[in-house]
């Protein structure tokens, strides 16, 4: 059975986006995302797919979750989280990459959570990540990173595994 992973960058207030875009530019987070997801299946909602500057991300199987029958270039489309989990069950690890509605649906199935904690708040954000019930998750690694000339905010790469 595939490891179901959620990968998200969220601010201290749970914010993950505004106007269908990321909250801020963190180049090292983009590199981290690429290093984790390369060669794997990434699963996203249609709005997240539409927000990708070049369309489908290269080097990965791109899956769009959508209730509509629209076909998205260089992707596969599924209509429910359960349907896509069944379709990827023989893979080693798959990544749900957003957005907020997809995270809400998939979190109960997730085995792993790759959370980039952005050490800031974004009160005008319009997309949020549900708070994680720490009793259901065990932190297995953390890498703290300071703000610098390329990163306006300090941030931490945190990996959680589901307990039990």
Architecture overview:
The protein is of the alpha/beta class and 164 residues long. The chain has a single domain (3-162), classed as 3-Layer(aba) Sandwich (Dihydrofolate Reductase, subunit A), CATH 3.40.430.10. 19% of the residues lie in helices and 37% in strands. It contains 4 helices and 11 strands; from the N terminus they run βββαβαββαβαββββ. It has helices at residues 27-37, 46-51, 81-87, 100-106, and strands spanning 3-11, 15-18, 21-22, 41-45, 61-65, 76-78, 93-98, 112-118, 127-128, 137-145, 155-162. The chain has an 8-stranded mixed beta sheet, sandwiched between helices. A 3-stranded antiparallel beta sheet has the order 3-2-9, with no helix packed on it. Helix 2 links the parallel strand 4 and strand 5 (61-65). It is globular. The protein starts with a strand and ends with a strand. The mean pLDDT is 95.
Write the topology of this structure.
Layout (H helix, E strand, L loop, with lengths): L2 E9 L3 E4 L2 E2 L4 H11 L3 E5 H6 L9 E5 L10 E3 L2 H7 L5 E6 L1 H7 L5 E7 L8 E2 L8 E9 L9 E8 L2
Parallel strand pairs: 1-7, 1-8, 4-5, 4-7, 5-6
Antiparallel strand pairs: 2-3, 2-9, 8-11, 10-11
């Amino acid at each position: 059975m595939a490891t179901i992973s959620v990968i998200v960058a969220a601010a201290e207030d749970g914010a993950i986006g505004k106007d269908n875009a990321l909250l801020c530019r963190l180049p090292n987070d983009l590199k981290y995302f690429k290093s984790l997801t390369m060669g794997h299946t990434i699963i996203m909602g249609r709005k997240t797919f539409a927000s990708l500057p070049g369309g489908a991300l290269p080097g990965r199987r791109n899956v769009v979750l959508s209730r509509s029958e629209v076909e998205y270039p260089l992707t596969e489309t599924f209509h429910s989280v359960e349907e896509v989990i069944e379709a990827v069950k023989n893979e080693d690890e798959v990544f749900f990459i957003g957005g907020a509605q997809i995270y809400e649906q998939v979190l109960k199935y997730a085995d792993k959570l790759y959370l980039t904690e952005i050490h800031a708040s974004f009160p005008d954000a319009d997309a949020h990540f549900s708070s994680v019930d720490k009793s259901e998750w065990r932190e297995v690694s953390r890498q703290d990173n300071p703000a610098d000339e390329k990163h306006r905010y300090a941030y931490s790469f945190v990996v959680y595994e589901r307990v039990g």
